[in-house]
Amino acid sequence: HHCSQHTAFKNHLTMDITVYPNGNGSLLFKLNTTNFETQKISEYLRTELNSRWDIIPSRSAITIITHDFSCHELESIVCKAIQKWTYSNEHQPAHHQIPVCYDLSLGIDLKRVSSLNQRPIDDIIALHSGSTYTVSMLGFLPGFLYLDGLSEHLHCQRLEVPRTRIPAGAVGIGGDQTGIYPIASPGGWNIIGATPFELFRPEAEHPVRVQALDTVRFNPISLEEYEYLVEGRDS
């Protein structure tokens, strides 16, 4: 059954929730709340619904995909669950220190970012590694981090023509966020460095090592340190 109209309701916390059709077997629940609460509601739904459904949070919305129910049935089940949700501050975010090499051989867009922001490369590196970031969401690729907290002096537009291949571990800037490519893929972010830290390990019990709401700081390392850590990781 395909939904063609959106509906809106409030839960007992007077949180506005608007439901949009998102293709067959999929609905998007738009929440006027914080990213923290969006992530917590997603965790709650995974537990409460105990299902094989795909529950995918973004900054202020949750997409749910299932072929077990019609859209109207899915909307009813999820809305009832959200209406029972109560705010809880039980989440204890983890903090991650991630090494990054900002050598020009890896940070292939450092000069571009420097030019766009009219700041020397050393300032770009100092600003990028001097902030504490919060993981606002994961998406695009398994383990791809969208990190909030980027200095306004580093904001820059994505590339007009995305590259066909960005290497795994590349650290980039896109708009007002920074992030890390967990696997090799196409991409349009400005690449300013690379990390030997593996964000996505498909064979591990917990394949994605960093989660939404965790915090991240980047520690600058030399090219020699980077190559040594990559070699040790891959051996």
Mean pLDDT, nearest integer?
Answer: 84
> What is the number of strand segments?
14
Based on secondary structure, the structural category is alpha+beta
- Report strand order across the widest sheet: 1-2-3-5-4
Helical residue percent band: 10-25%
Q: Describe it for me?
A:
With 235 residues, this protein is an alpha+beta fold. The chain is 25% helix and 30% strand. The protein has 5 helices and 14 strands. A 5-stranded antiparallel sheet has the order 1-2-3-5-4, with helices on one face. A 4-stranded mixed sheet has the order 6-14-7-8. Strands 11-10-13 form a 3-stranded antiparallel sheet. A hairpin with a 5-residue loop joins strand 1 and strand 2. The longest helix is centred in the first third of the chain and has 15 residues. It is elongated and about 55 Å long. The N terminus is likely disordered.
Highlighted features:
about 240 residues, alpha+beta, four-stranded mixed beta sheet, elongated, disordered N terminus
Short description:
The chain is of the alpha+beta class and about 240 residues long. It contains five helices and 14 strands. The chain is elongated and about 55 Å long.
